What does this fold into?
Amino acid sequence: MRRFAFAAATFVLIATLGCRKQRSNETGGVSDTATTPPAAAIAAQPAAADTAGVPPEFTFDQRQNFVQSIRQQLTDIDRQIKELSAQAKSRGGAVSDRALNNVRAARRTVDRDLSRVNAATAANWEQVRQGVTRSVENLNEAIEVAQPK
It folds into this structure.
């Protein structure tokens, strides 16, 4: 009998919580029924506990330095692409059109990924940075494959 009463009480509690009306605000249906802890409870928490899951500091200078570094690499890469293109156009060129097309596609990917850097936030900075770095590595590999042997 106790199990039945406990199960019935649990069911009523779940039904009550699940069926209550929730107000939505301008943020697209996010519920504002959540309670916030009192200010005294927030102040009593140690500051070190807040930094455990926080990503490292993200700054505008960090983003600008990264973009500048990538652009410097791309200057050299673009020179290599021009050389490959000239080799492909010359008679008996050792560079195939397919390899050159792969290099150009990889270069466009770098441009696309690099354009995402300006919209990067602290939350997604590492992901964006790694994506750009990976696409530059892929471009370098495509150039390596396209090089005449």
Remarks:
- Residues 3 and 9 are 10 Å apart (CA to CA).
- The two ends are 84 Å apart (CA to CA).
- The chain has six helices and no strands.
